[in-house]
Specification:
Threonylcarbamoyl-AMP synthase; 28% helix; 6 helices; SUA5_domain; Sua5-like_dom; double-stranded RNA binding
Length: 205
């Protein structure tokens, strides 16, 4: 059974963040809050943990997960960022956006699409950012829902009911009204909105 830990959503307790990071470093899988919904994740460099998330989500192997970085500087290690992309991301991050970029050699193969692209986020949520910063690696990001099934997961109790027996830690940071991120391709100088979700699309039109 997963351990449930309450972490203050606006002022995360470092001791509890350290607990979550230790679990991730040991190859664990956690459920955590983001600025769009509760997510499931692990260290992207731990292949066993990534495979576990595939099983938990019942997701086909040809659909790579997105991941989250702590900052724009961090993003540029894992995605090729052109001038236009840099300008747009600098103005809109952290925020509820997933950016599609060409992946760099640092990205594990299991996280790349066939086209060698990646989806990367910098979430606007103190708990999430604190975990990524302390982990010093990107965090795999997928919604705490079952693939192709409609559920409204708004709190840690819902998450526990669905995934409590399959993950190692659930972080409770209160209610989150779930709304997916807006997905924007920055593979060329002309941004392309692939999915409209949370967040203003105006800057990318």
């Amino acid at each position: 059974m997963a351990k449930i830990v309450s972490i203050n959503p606006s002022n995360p307790q470092p001791r509890l963040i350290a607990q979550a990071v230790e679990i991730l470093q040991q190859g664990g899988v956690i459920c955590y809050p983001t600025d769009t919904m509760y997510g499931i994740g692990c260290d992207i460099f731990n292949q066993k943990a990534v495979k576990r998330v595939y099983q938990i989500k019942r997701r086909p192997k040809n659909k790579p997960f997105t991941f989250m970085c702590a900052s724009l500087t961090n993003i540029s290690h894992y995605g090729h960022v052109g001038n236009t992309a840099y300008r747009l991301m600098r103005k809109n991050l952290p925020g509820p956006y997933t950016f599609v970029l060409s992946g760099t050699k640092l990205v594990p193969k299991i996280m790349l699409t066939k086209q060698k692209t990646v989806g990367i986020r910098v979430p606007d949520h103190p708990v999430c950012l604190a975990i990524i910063e302390a982990l010093e690696n990107p965090l795999l990001n997928t919604s705490a829902t079952i693939e192709d099934e409609e559920q409204s997961i708004t709190n840690s109790y819902d998450v526990d009911e669905l995934f409590g027996k399959q993950v190692d830690l659930i972080i409770d940071s209160g209610e989150i009204v779930p709304q997916p991120s807006t997905v924007i391709s920055l593979l060329t100088d002309q941004p392309e909105i692939l999915r409209v979700g949370k967040g203003d699309t105006e800057p990318f039109l």
